[in-house]
Amino acid sequence: MALNSVKESPLTVDVLIVGAGPTGLTLACDLARRGVRALVVERADALFPGSRGKGIQPRTQEVFDDLGIIDAALAAGGPAPVGMVWQGGERQGEHRMFDETEATPDAPYASPLLLPQWRTQEILSARLRELGGPDVEFGAELSGLTQDGEGVTARLSDGRTVRAAYAVAADGGRSTVRAALGIGMTGETVDPHPILVADVRIPALDRDNWHMFAPTADGAGFLAICPLPGTPDFQLTAQFTDGTAPDTSLDGVRAVVAARTHLAADDVTEVRWASDFRPRAAMADRFRDGRVFLAGDAAHVHSPAGGQGLNTSVQDAYNLGWKLGAVLRGGAPEALLDTYEEERLPNAAQMLGLSTRIHRGEERRGAATRQLGLGYRDSSLTAETRTGLAEGALRAGDRAPDGPYAGGRLFDAFRGPHFTLLTVGTDAELPLLDEELVHMCRIDAYPPYGKGLFLVRPDGYVGWAGEDTTGLTDYFRLIHQGS
Questions:
Q1: Comparing C-alpha atoms, which of 125, 132, 171, 137 is closest to residue 37?
Q2: Which of 60, 239, 256, 282 has its CA 20 to 30 A from that of 454?
């Protein structure tokens, strides 16, 4: 679906996605498997080349499992190496970056996966092509956007026009779309010290550890060098004193490495990508304006500490994708789209606070960073009809756990754009529901679920739960047909 039509004839699609980062590409993949015509436009000339968002949390790995890319991600990435603290050219001891956890049947992905952002985007882009989705239109910068009751009209910098039923801003922290809508960002500077981040080649340095160097006596901040799995590169992160402008050139990176580590300047043989930033925490005042939605960094900007930014962004796309598909292809009421902001804004705020606390040393990278405990219990889409549940019991709104099923896993049954009605430890008679929209699945009593019926949403959260089917048909009709 290349944008090669005559300028006077606007291209018409269902959804215009502005930005080809992890957020935009995840959304494009999810829409493609739902038969929704989307177009992805990206102002840059190619996919982002850096490693920036390199930590893929367990919940995002589950999303990648559902999208059919987890094997590619696991093959390309790897676990985070143990940290090694250096001082005076000597190894001082190990430092564990994360609390260690073991995979279990209900949570098969237990630890963060290190995967450079550029590689994540390549994997998503390849999956989009496999799903028959559109190629990304590179060098296509948005120059204007208007909307009416029927759709959105976008103008590109070369004069071309796109008409879409909906548009999604996935164009980063300096979002052109957000600015055009006049939506403000409320936030704070997490740390006034500028940080240099660069992808470098250092053949002389071993790849067994995440190398950490303490702040220097002259007030310069920390420096860390992390090997990037599946590549010959390291990600270098260096903190500078307030008021300093980090030099991102090869000579500048060499100088900081030589000054703060036991390595020589010439040990840095190449700088493949470099950038500098000041850690901020900010969130858009709202995530929707009419037929336009904000997702990813366009909606919330995190400190990189804790590895929450990219992951929260992927969750945005995963939440919005099934709802757009339901409205555009499944006859769901447009009011379903109101729940995107209702569900995602509180989650983004929670992860934003977590990132800030980790950056400031107020909280360790623990269970919360894995995002498996996030959910939507308070959502208007959530209906828990059981009473007297024990503390800690799975409830409507929670993430649906994995487990054994029919020689495979429950995640195999959940995978795809459908709902799943899971019956656990009961012989309750099931209602007649559209077999294309709702797949049926029955298992014996299973501790992570207990007993009951659970309607699992396409994004892997329990939407409705009950002891029997009372109210299930009405619930499904309300969210999918509006009546």
A1: 132
A2: 60
Query: Token pair of 1, please?
Result: 């679906």
What gap in Å lies between CA 234 and CA 418, rounded to an integer?
A: 40
Place of tokens 């957020």: 23
Range of the domain at 469: 383-480
Report the distance separating Cα 363 and Cα 355, nearest Å: 9
What is the CB neighbour count within 10 angstroms for residue 450?
A: 16
How many helical (H) and strand (E) elements, i.e. helices and strands, does the chain have?
A: 10, 28
pLDDT in tens, 444-471: 999 999 999 999 999 999 999 999 999 9
Clarify whether residues 463 and 440 are in a common domain.
Answer: yes
Q: What is the mean pLDDT of the chain?
A: 93
| pLDDT for 302 beyond 70 | yes
Residue reference for tokens 């993949």: 29
In whole angstroms, give the CA distance from residue 192 to residue 277: 10
- Tokens matching residue 168: 């999604």
The answer to whether the CB of 228 falls within 8 A of the CB of 234 is yes
Identify each DSSP E strand in 356-402 by its residue range: 383-384
Residue 6 is encoded by which pair of tokens?
């005559």
Q: Give the span between the Cα atoms of 57 and 461, in whole angstroms.
A: 17
The residue out of 311, 343, 370 marking a domain boundary is 370
Residue percentage of the chain with pLDDT more than 70: 98
In tens, the pLDDT along 421-445 reads: 999 999 888 887 888 899 999 999 9
> CA angle at residue 24 from 357 to 276, to 5 degrees?
50
Contacting residues for 114 by C-beta, under 8 A, at least 6 apart? 54, 55, 56, 77, 78, 79, 80, 226, 228, 229
